[in-house]
């Protein structure tokens, strides 16, 4: 399962650097931002520890952690030309700032020299300097040679000695002896233009440097002994690569990169194959570091969007190893029971309908193929004591599937002349019915057992219909559809005739999603609207009384892209997703239930069953949260 906690927020200030360490036995994150402060976060609880660490008078771009006299410390490098050491236990600065550089300092790494903890710091004055962390003294002479700036620094073990690897403004890499400052060999060029990140590690036992290009967006691996490129450049980022870190997953060496294309990417370090793309940041991602959380490897990233985010790397590896033919986006999800087994049913861009074991997450049977376009919507019903799925897609058809047999029942149901965007089912009439709505402006009702269309299609909507559900209104089964003008239209299912309509006092934004349930014995509908309708305004989830069309208030969930409602153990709840955040709501009190849950990517569809299992789809992934 992906991590389900809220990421730390840094009050909107761009986060330029992150580093991880362990404090009092718990994993923590140190973040540095535009305002010059450092903040400490408990990785497990996502809570800030103590007050911000202040002292810098400019943005902090460089950050590293180390251990000094048995205590965790952070070392920061700033545009104010200084570097500082911080005791993370007390939150206090240790000694005075390092101020020998004549320009901005950004590149920083920690190491040991002569058995003492030290920091190597690179500056825009073209030098790299080594500092004793305990005394604050500069060790030896500065490393020179870069024409303009020593932007990034790292250390490695090469031929039995510790070396400093640094890059300048024009893509050249220099290797120097840490102890003597002597440059080893000639510099070598890694990218045609600026190198935006540099790190060192080992690959198959040999020291390597890994670089990211500022303009070409590639990642390159270099043998430090031979200065030769290993393999082909890694291609995936659309813009500059600004952070890289390394670990091992299931014995496989992997790299994690952060880029100005707002993505975090997981790579097979040996082959350069991209394994997974984590999205969710809304601005440049500047920095990445790795940690262990509850026995699972995670990446921690900092971004100009003002957040520090945590990504479950195990999930990324599992997603990379999912069936190749199902990596396209999942559009629809629901749950049902097949042969006594609770399952998840999904529809996606690969034109398939798929079943998954709700308990294990493993595929259940074979993909159901038949649609000639993406499957946008689905619902389940029971026909002759057998579970069936009713699906609608961009091919304008409605299809019925026997889920136990894994086959389509009968011919496609035709009539819609444009994409089918919503489907709901009910058996309240004594026979299984499905109601479908689409961009052809119609609402249609079907007998699921026979495939027969009931009544004439409803064509009263002026524009497309994106959302429909079913309800019981004074003992009569009805469909409830969202209007283009923001209201509801209710139709009797037995005849598909419109029996009532409601609209806001003025024309509102179009209903984007709709879900129905029962609250206090009365049928209610929840609706979301097009978030692009009123630019700059938060769009809430609205509650309506189906019987009267009366507005019952709003849920404090805004800009929701996925919505569902259900009765869980007899209690009405709603589940909403805004981007990567998933929230559960008590519809009696309109209050949130439990903590906000977080996904590796933006949610595309949500379902909840009577047992309280919340199933969320996001791009090509599926997550299940089990209610307590």
From TrEMBL:
It comes from Nonomuraea antimicrobica. PANTHER family: WD REPEAT DOMAIN 5B, WD40 REPEAT PROTEIN. This is WD40 repeat. WD repeats lie at residues 29-51, 53-96, 98-141, 188-232, 234-277, 278-314, 344-366, 368-411, 413-456. Keywords: Repeat, WD repeat. Signal peptide: none annotated. Gene3D superfamilies: YVTN repeat-like/Quinoprotein amine dehydrogenase. The keyword tRNA-binding does not apply. InterPro entries: Quinoprotein_ADH-like_sf, WD40/YVTN_repeat-like_dom_sf, WD40_PAC1, WD40_repeat_CS, WD40_repeat_dom_sf, WD40_rpt.
